[in-house]
Amino acid sequence: MLERANSLFGYTLGELSIYAKLEIPPNLKRDKGWIGILLERYLGASAKNKSEPDFASIGIELKTIPIDNRSKIPLETTFICVAPLIGNSGVTWETSYVRYKLSRVLWIPIEGQRTMPLAMRRIGAPLLWNLNSKEELHLKSDWEELMDLIVLGKVETITAHHGEMLHLRPKASHGKSLTAAIGKFGKPILTIPLGFYLRKKFTAKIIARYYRYFLL
DNA sequence: CTATGATCATCC
DNA sequence: GGATGATCATAG
């Protein structure tokens, strides 16, 4: 699979879409996950919409990441998973889904400037990344701060400003989506679902270590 | 609704 | 410009 991923370096999304027999949309406005689906399809990911790594047998999570090819900086934050708002008793960073998802990621950088037609965007060299102890410490600190707010009934006070590397933002189809959570005084409430995202400054560091290898 | 895949678009 | 808050598509 890694060899197959490496072989994608330099190809455009237009070329890959033809090869993978996946129709290319005019833009990503209505197909935000299209690039991810395309790469999964080409690389033979197994998980679909199940809760396990994309390549379960080898414990690798696949993530495409849009990059500005001049600055080499990510253009978007990276979604990790939906935040559990209830049933968190006994959950620690060590057993968290965030840590599980991020323990090993195959990042595939792709030119992502909106001015560039989708078909012309080039695929960069994949980067197999293992969460190191320093990074983990940072994420753990953010995760604990955020989970405290959730568990202590302060979910409605959460904004994307919380968390240095990892933060929470809405994750829903629309603003009226509701899910169960804990409100003030421990009272059950319904609120908008939240997702964990990696800030660009975190992913930028990962990408920077390898930027010389991709996108010319 | 929740999970997968993310980016859009507004506001500061 | 860039981050925050909002949103899109699909499967089960």
From TrEMBL:
Keyword entries, A-Z:
Cytoplasm, DNA damage, DNA repair, Endonuclease, Hydrolase, Nuclease
Q: Which domain of life is it from?
A: Bacteria
Q: GO: which molecular function terms?
A: DNA binding; endonuclease activity; hydrolase activity
Q: Is DNA repair included in the keywords of this UniProt record? A: yes
The UniProt record lists the DNA mismatch repair MutH/Type II restriction enzyme Sau3AI domain at 43-142
InterPro entries from the entry? DNA_mismatch_repair_MutH, DNA_rep_MutH/RE_typeII_Sau3AI, DNA_rep_MutH/T2_RE_sf, Restrct_endonuc-II-like
Q: Where in the cell is it found?
A: Cytoplasm
The signal peptide here is none
CDD domains the record matches: MutH-like
Keyword Cytoplasm among UniProt keywords: yes
* Any one GO CC term of the record: cytoplasm
Per the record, a Pfam family?
Answer: MutH
Task: Give the GO biological process terms.
Answer: DNA modification; mismatch repair
Q: Which family does it belong to?
A: Belongs to the MutH family.
Q: What does this protein do?
A: Sequence-specific endonuclease that cleaves unmethylated GATC sequences. It is involved in DNA mismatch repair.
The name this protein carries in UniProt is DNA mismatch repair protein MutH
Which species does the entry assign this protein to? Candidatus Mikella endobia
